TrEMBL record:
Belongs to the short-chain dehydrogenases/reductases (SDR) family. Keywords: Oxidoreductase. GO terms for molecular function: oxidoreductase activity. The keyword Protein biosynthesis does not apply. This is Steroid dehydrogenase. Coiled coil: none annotated. The keyword Amino-acid biosynthesis does not apply. Gene3D superfamilies: NAD(P)-binding Rossmann-like Domain.
Length: 270
Protein backbone atom coordinates (compact mmCIF):
# COMPACT_ATOMS: atom_id res chain seq x y z
CA UNK A 1 0.00 0.00 0.00
CA UNK A 2 1.63 3.24 -1.08
CA UNK A 3 0.72 6.73 0.06
CA UNK A 4 1.10 9.73 -2.24
CA UNK A 5 1.90 7.35 -4.93
CA UNK A 6 0.97 8.82 -8.29
CA UNK A 7 4.40 10.33 -8.84
CA UNK A 8 7.98 10.51 -7.57
CA UNK A 9 9.33 8.24 -4.86
CA UNK A 10 5.86 6.92 -3.97
CA UNK A 11 5.26 5.70 -7.50
CA UNK A 12 8.69 4.05 -7.54
CA UNK A 13 7.80 2.14 -4.36
CA UNK A 14 4.55 0.99 -6.00
CA UNK A 15 6.32 -0.19 -9.17
CA UNK A 16 8.95 -2.10 -7.20
CA UNK A 17 6.45 -3.75 -4.88
CA UNK A 18 4.10 -4.69 -7.71
CA UNK A 19 7.06 -6.35 -9.41
CA UNK A 20 7.64 -8.35 -6.22
CA UNK A 21 4.01 -9.56 -6.34
CA UNK A 22 2.34 -7.18 -3.87
CA UNK A 23 -1.14 -5.89 -4.62
CA UNK A 24 -0.98 -2.12 -4.66
CA UNK A 25 -3.30 0.53 -3.25
CA UNK A 26 -2.18 4.04 -4.15
CA UNK A 27 -3.44 7.20 -2.52
CA UNK A 28 -3.13 10.76 -3.77
CA UNK A 29 -5.20 13.80 -4.72
CA UNK A 30 -5.66 13.52 -8.45
CA UNK A 31 -8.11 10.99 -9.86
CA UNK A 32 -6.76 11.56 -13.36
CA UNK A 33 -3.10 10.99 -12.40
CA UNK A 34 -3.98 7.95 -10.33
CA UNK A 35 -5.99 6.43 -13.17
CA UNK A 36 -3.04 6.85 -15.55
CA UNK A 37 -0.43 5.33 -13.24
CA UNK A 38 -2.82 2.60 -12.12
CA UNK A 39 -3.12 1.50 -15.75
CA UNK A 40 0.64 1.73 -16.24
CA UNK A 41 1.55 -0.32 -13.13
CA UNK A 42 -1.25 -2.81 -13.82
CA UNK A 43 -0.12 -3.32 -17.42
CA UNK A 44 3.41 -4.09 -16.27
CA UNK A 45 2.25 -6.46 -13.52
CA UNK A 46 -0.80 -8.39 -14.60
CA UNK A 47 -0.70 -10.91 -11.76
CA UNK A 48 -1.35 -8.31 -9.04
CA UNK A 49 -4.27 -5.99 -8.28
CA UNK A 50 -3.50 -2.30 -8.60
CA UNK A 51 -6.11 0.04 -7.15
CA UNK A 52 -6.29 3.53 -5.78
CA UNK A 53 -8.13 5.89 -3.44
CA UNK A 54 -8.41 9.61 -4.06
CA UNK A 55 -7.65 11.60 -0.92
CA UNK A 56 -5.97 14.89 -0.17
CA UNK A 57 -4.05 13.91 2.94
CA UNK A 58 -3.47 17.56 3.72
CA UNK A 59 -7.19 17.88 4.40
CA UNK A 60 -7.23 15.35 7.23
CA UNK A 61 -5.97 16.59 10.54
CA UNK A 62 -7.50 14.63 13.40
CA UNK A 63 -7.18 11.00 14.41
CA UNK A 64 -10.95 10.63 14.05
CA UNK A 65 -10.86 11.86 10.46
CA UNK A 66 -8.17 9.30 9.65
CA UNK A 67 -10.14 6.50 11.34
CA UNK A 68 -13.34 7.47 9.51
CA UNK A 69 -11.53 7.58 6.16
CA UNK A 70 -9.14 4.62 6.38
CA UNK A 71 -10.21 2.16 9.09
CA UNK A 72 -12.58 0.33 6.72
CA UNK A 73 -9.98 0.40 3.94
CA UNK A 74 -7.40 -1.20 6.25
CA UNK A 75 -9.88 -3.81 7.40
CA UNK A 76 -10.85 -4.76 3.85
CA UNK A 77 -7.31 -5.56 2.65
CA UNK A 78 -4.26 -7.34 3.95
CA UNK A 79 -1.67 -4.59 4.39
CA UNK A 80 1.83 -6.04 4.07
CA UNK A 81 3.70 -2.78 3.70
CA UNK A 82 2.46 0.74 4.42
CA UNK A 83 4.46 3.60 2.95
CA UNK A 84 3.83 7.05 4.36
CA UNK A 85 5.47 9.16 1.72
CA UNK A 86 3.49 12.42 1.66
CA UNK A 87 5.47 15.54 2.36
CA UNK A 88 5.79 19.19 1.48
CA UNK A 89 7.86 22.10 2.73
CA UNK A 90 7.41 25.82 2.19
CA UNK A 91 10.48 27.99 2.12
CA UNK A 92 10.72 31.23 4.01
CA UNK A 93 11.79 32.43 7.40
CA UNK A 94 9.64 31.56 10.41
CA UNK A 95 8.12 35.03 10.45
CA UNK A 96 7.54 35.12 6.70
CA UNK A 97 5.65 31.85 6.50
CA UNK A 98 1.91 32.30 6.52
CA UNK A 99 -0.21 30.47 9.10
CA UNK A 100 -1.75 28.50 6.24
CA UNK A 101 1.65 27.34 4.96
CA UNK A 102 2.79 26.36 8.45
CA UNK A 103 -0.40 24.42 9.04
CA UNK A 104 -0.18 22.67 5.66
CA UNK A 105 3.37 21.43 6.34
CA UNK A 106 2.40 20.05 9.73
CA UNK A 107 -0.78 18.41 8.48
CA UNK A 108 0.68 16.74 5.44
CA UNK A 109 4.09 15.73 6.79
CA UNK A 110 3.18 14.46 10.23
CA UNK A 111 -0.41 13.36 10.66
CA UNK A 112 -0.66 10.47 8.22
CA UNK A 113 2.73 9.09 9.31
CA UNK A 114 1.54 9.16 12.92
CA UNK A 115 -2.08 8.10 12.65
CA UNK A 116 -1.91 5.49 9.90
CA UNK A 117 1.07 3.80 11.54
CA UNK A 118 -0.80 3.57 14.85
CA UNK A 119 -4.02 2.48 13.19
CA UNK A 120 -2.27 -0.28 11.29
CA UNK A 121 -0.30 -1.53 14.29
CA UNK A 122 -3.45 -1.68 16.41
CA UNK A 123 -5.24 -3.85 13.85
CA UNK A 124 -2.36 -6.04 12.65
CA UNK A 125 -1.03 -7.72 15.80
CA UNK A 126 -2.76 -11.00 14.95
CA UNK A 127 -1.37 -11.06 11.41
CA UNK A 128 0.90 -14.07 10.84
CA UNK A 129 3.36 -12.36 8.49
CA UNK A 130 5.58 -9.40 9.40
CA UNK A 131 4.21 -5.98 8.49
CA UNK A 132 6.48 -3.25 7.15
CA UNK A 133 5.77 0.40 7.93
CA UNK A 134 7.90 3.05 6.23
CA UNK A 135 7.87 6.83 6.52
CA UNK A 136 9.76 9.00 4.08
CA UNK A 137 11.58 11.77 5.96
CA UNK A 138 14.64 13.64 4.61
CA UNK A 139 18.29 14.29 5.38
CA UNK A 140 17.06 17.77 6.27
CA UNK A 141 15.92 16.18 9.54
CA UNK A 142 19.52 16.41 10.71
CA UNK A 143 19.55 20.16 11.20
CA UNK A 144 17.06 22.97 11.75
CA UNK A 145 17.80 24.37 8.28
CA UNK A 146 17.08 28.13 8.37
CA UNK A 147 14.32 29.18 5.96
CA UNK A 148 13.21 25.54 5.85
CA UNK A 149 12.68 25.13 9.60
CA UNK A 150 9.19 23.68 9.44
CA UNK A 151 10.19 21.12 6.85
CA UNK A 152 13.28 20.07 8.85
CA UNK A 153 11.29 19.86 12.07
CA UNK A 154 8.52 17.72 10.64
CA UNK A 155 11.09 15.34 9.14
CA UNK A 156 12.91 15.20 12.49
CA UNK A 157 9.62 14.36 14.15
CA UNK A 158 9.07 11.44 11.79
CA UNK A 159 12.63 10.20 12.23
CA UNK A 160 12.32 10.21 16.04
CA UNK A 161 8.84 8.73 15.98
CA UNK A 162 9.70 5.81 13.72
CA UNK A 163 12.92 4.98 15.56
CA UNK A 164 11.00 5.02 18.83
CA UNK A 165 8.10 2.99 17.48
CA UNK A 166 10.45 0.39 16.03
CA UNK A 167 12.26 0.12 19.37
CA UNK A 168 9.01 -0.32 21.27
CA UNK A 169 7.68 -2.79 18.69
CA UNK A 170 10.74 -5.03 19.07
CA UNK A 171 10.77 -4.70 22.88
CA UNK A 172 7.08 -5.52 23.42
CA UNK A 173 6.20 -9.22 23.46
CA UNK A 174 2.86 -8.48 21.70
CA UNK A 175 4.53 -6.86 18.70
CA UNK A 176 8.04 -8.36 18.72
CA UNK A 177 8.91 -9.78 15.32
CA UNK A 178 5.62 -8.63 13.81
CA UNK A 179 6.57 -5.16 12.60
CA UNK A 180 9.51 -3.63 10.77
CA UNK A 181 9.24 0.12 11.20
CA UNK A 182 11.63 2.13 9.06
CA UNK A 183 12.37 5.78 8.47
CA UNK A 184 13.81 6.57 5.04
CA UNK A 185 15.97 9.70 4.92
CA UNK A 186 16.86 10.63 1.35
CA UNK A 187 18.92 13.52 0.11
CA UNK A 188 17.91 14.97 -3.26
CA UNK A 189 16.14 12.49 -5.55
CA UNK A 190 15.22 13.43 -9.13
CA UNK A 191 11.48 14.18 -8.87
CA UNK A 192 9.01 16.93 -9.67
CA UNK A 193 9.17 18.06 -6.06
CA UNK A 194 12.94 18.52 -6.01
CA UNK A 195 13.05 19.79 -9.62
CA UNK A 196 16.44 18.06 -9.92
CA UNK A 197 17.80 15.89 -12.70
CA UNK A 198 19.63 12.62 -12.04
CA UNK A 199 23.28 13.39 -11.33
CA UNK A 200 26.03 13.37 -8.73
CA UNK A 201 24.42 12.31 -5.41
CA UNK A 202 20.98 12.60 -7.07
CA UNK A 203 19.52 9.16 -7.85
CA UNK A 204 16.44 8.38 -9.88
CA UNK A 205 13.36 7.38 -7.91
CA UNK A 206 13.64 3.64 -8.57
CA UNK A 207 17.25 3.45 -7.39
CA UNK A 208 16.38 5.47 -4.30
CA UNK A 209 13.28 3.48 -3.32
CA UNK A 210 14.93 0.15 -4.15
CA UNK A 211 17.79 0.91 -1.76
CA UNK A 212 15.42 1.84 1.05
CA UNK A 213 13.27 -1.26 0.47
CA UNK A 214 16.35 -3.50 0.65
CA UNK A 215 17.00 -2.10 4.14
CA UNK A 216 13.49 -2.87 5.38
CA UNK A 217 13.76 -5.36 8.25
CA UNK A 218 17.51 -4.82 8.44
CA UNK A 219 17.81 -1.13 9.32
CA UNK A 220 15.32 1.15 11.08
CA UNK A 221 17.00 4.12 9.36
CA UNK A 222 17.73 3.90 5.65
CA UNK A 223 19.39 6.36 3.34
CA UNK A 224 18.54 4.36 0.24
CA UNK A 225 21.82 4.92 -1.57
CA UNK A 226 25.42 5.09 -0.35
CA UNK A 227 25.82 8.76 -1.47
CA UNK A 228 22.99 9.77 0.83
CA UNK A 229 24.43 7.68 3.64
CA UNK A 230 27.68 9.63 3.30
CA UNK A 231 25.82 12.95 3.05
CA UNK A 232 23.88 12.11 6.20
CA UNK A 233 27.08 11.31 8.04
CA UNK A 234 28.65 14.53 6.74
CA UNK A 235 25.73 16.73 7.82
CA UNK A 236 25.75 15.17 11.30
CA UNK A 237 29.52 15.61 11.55
CA UNK A 238 29.47 19.24 10.37
CA UNK A 239 26.65 20.35 12.65
CA UNK A 240 28.43 18.73 15.60
CA UNK A 241 31.87 20.17 14.90
CA UNK A 242 31.28 23.60 13.35
CA UNK A 243 30.01 26.28 15.74
CA UNK A 244 26.33 27.04 15.32
CA UNK A 245 27.05 30.70 14.58
CA UNK A 246 29.05 29.68 11.48
CA UNK A 247 27.05 26.76 10.13
CA UNK A 248 23.76 28.49 10.89
CA UNK A 249 24.94 31.64 9.12
CA UNK A 250 26.05 29.74 5.99
CA UNK A 251 22.83 27.73 5.82
CA UNK A 252 20.75 30.83 6.46
CA UNK A 253 22.31 32.50 3.43
CA UNK A 254 21.76 29.37 1.37
CA UNK A 255 18.15 29.04 2.55
CA UNK A 256 17.39 32.65 1.74
CA UNK A 257 18.94 32.32 -1.72
CA UNK A 258 16.94 29.14 -2.45
CA UNK A 259 13.79 30.87 -1.27
CA UNK A 260 14.36 33.86 -3.55
CA UNK A 261 15.18 31.62 -6.50
CA UNK A 262 12.07 29.49 -6.02
CA UNK A 263 9.73 32.42 -5.45
CA UNK A 264 11.11 34.23 -8.51
CA UNK A 265 10.10 31.17 -10.55
CA UNK A 266 6.68 31.14 -8.95
CA UNK A 267 7.33 28.18 -6.63
CA UNK A 268 6.70 28.44 -2.95
CA UNK A 269 7.65 25.01 -1.77
CA UNK A 270 10.58 22.59 -1.68
N1 LIG B 1 12.60 14.44 -4.05
C1 LIG B 1 13.51 14.72 -3.15
O1 LIG B 1 14.59 15.24 -3.45
C2 LIG B 1 13.24 14.43 -1.69
C3 LIG B 1 14.30 14.55 -0.79
C4 LIG B 1 14.08 14.28 0.54
C5 LIG B 1 12.82 13.89 0.97
N2 LIG B 1 11.81 13.80 0.07
C6 LIG B 1 10.49 13.41 0.56
O2 LIG B 1 10.00 12.35 -0.24
C7 LIG B 1 8.58 12.38 -0.28
C8 LIG B 1 8.09 12.27 -1.71
O3 LIG B 1 8.63 13.33 -2.47
P1 LIG B 1 8.70 13.28 -4.06
O4 LIG B 1 9.89 14.08 -4.42
O5 LIG B 1 8.55 11.91 -4.55
O6 LIG B 1 7.39 14.11 -4.45
P2 LIG B 1 6.63 14.26 -5.89
O7 LIG B 1 7.44 13.78 -7.00
O8 LIG B 1 6.14 15.68 -5.89
O9 LIG B 1 5.38 13.29 -5.76
C9 LIG B 1 4.38 13.69 -4.95
C10 LIG B 1 3.26 12.67 -4.89
O10 LIG B 1 2.45 12.98 -3.76
C11 LIG B 1 1.10 13.23 -4.15
N3 LIG B 1 0.56 14.29 -3.28
C12 LIG B 1 0.96 15.56 -3.20
N4 LIG B 1 0.27 16.21 -2.25
C13 LIG B 1 -0.61 15.32 -1.73
C14 LIG B 1 -1.64 15.40 -0.74
N5 LIG B 1 -1.91 16.53 -0.10
N6 LIG B 1 -2.37 14.28 -0.44
C15 LIG B 1 -2.13 13.14 -1.10
N7 LIG B 1 -1.18 13.00 -2.04
C16 LIG B 1 -0.43 14.08 -2.36
C17 LIG B 1 1.20 13.61 -5.60
O11 LIG B 1 0.05 13.26 -6.31
P3 LIG B 1 -1.17 14.28 -6.47
O12 LIG B 1 -0.58 15.54 -6.99
O13 LIG B 1 -2.07 13.58 -7.41
O14 LIG B 1 -1.78 14.41 -5.12
C18 LIG B 1 2.35 12.69 -6.07
O15 LIG B 1 1.89 11.40 -6.28
C19 LIG B 1 8.18 13.67 0.45
O16 LIG B 1 7.82 13.36 1.77
C20 LIG B 1 9.44 14.50 0.44
O17 LIG B 1 9.50 15.39 1.53
C21 LIG B 1 11.99 14.05 -1.27
Amino acid sequence: MGKRASDGIGLAYCKLLAKQGFNILMISRSDEKLKTVQKEVQAQNQDVIVSYEVQDLGKLSTYKEYVDRFQKVFQSIDVGILINNAGIGFTGSYLQMTYEEAEAVFALNNFHATYLCKMLMSTQTSRNERTGIIAVASLMAYYHFPWHIYYSCTKRFIEYLYQGVNFEAQADIRTKGKFDVQCYLPGFVATKLSRKEVGFTIPDTITAAEGALKDLGRREISYGVIDHHILGWLIKFLVKTIPESIIGFILMKEGEATHKKLRSKGYSFI
